Amino acid sequence: MVRIRLRKVGAKRQPSYRIVAADKESPRDGRFIEILGFYNPRTDPATINVKEDRVYDWLSKGAQPSESVTQVFRSAGTLERYERYKQGESVEVLMQEAAQAEAARTDKIK
């Protein structure tokens, strides 16, 4: 079974995370299938960068997000857009909306 989960990167006491698709049996920082994004909780607000088209593909194939990734996706709005994708909305429209949401989040940082 494939899980979408966080993979820790960065120095000691300065964690940042990659969002990856990995086999359920693989260790946290071990082998993974694909990098789906990046998450840095140390910035204010947290930096979230997600390849949503790839996330939609993995979720439609049956991959299960971990609890922490579900929280990250909720804060980024990815899960709501995925529900609309399942209803039949175009991927291009959803990707444009995701880019606008990303720009709005980065404007808050500055």
Tell me what you see in this structure.
- The protein contains four helices and five strands, in the order ββββαβααα.
- It is an alpha+beta fold and 110 residues long.
- It has a five-stranded mixed sheet with strand order 4-3-2-1-5.
- A hairpin with a 6-residue loop joins strand 3 and strand 4 (47-50).
- The protein is flat and about 40 Å long.
- The model has no long low-confidence stretch (mean pLDDT 90).
Keywords:
flat; alpha+beta; S16 Ribosomal Protein, Chain: A; five-stranded mixed beta sheet; 110 residues
In brief, what are we looking at here?
The protein is an alpha+beta fold. The protein has helices at 52-60, 67-76, 78-86, 91-109; strands spanning 2-9, 16-23, 34-40, 47-50, 64-65.
Looking at CATH, the homologous superfamily is Ribosomal protein S16
Question: If you compute it from the alpha carbons, what radius of gyration comes out, rounded to the nearest whole angstrom?
Answer: 14 Å
Strand content: 25-35%
CATH class: Alpha Beta
Count of discrete structural domains? 1
> Number of helix segments?
4
* Structural class by SSE content: alpha+beta
The CATH topology assignment is: S16 Ribosomal Protein, Chain: A
Low-confidence stretches: none
| Mean pLDDT over all positions | 90
- Please trace the helix and strand order, writing H or E for each element: EEEEHEHHH
Strand order of the largest sheet: 4-3-2-1-5
Shape: flat
The appropriate CATH architecture is 2-Layer Sandwich
Largest sheet: 5 strands, mixed
**How far is the N terminus from the C terminus?**
40 Å
State the helicity in percent bands.
40-55%
Report the count of strand segments: 5
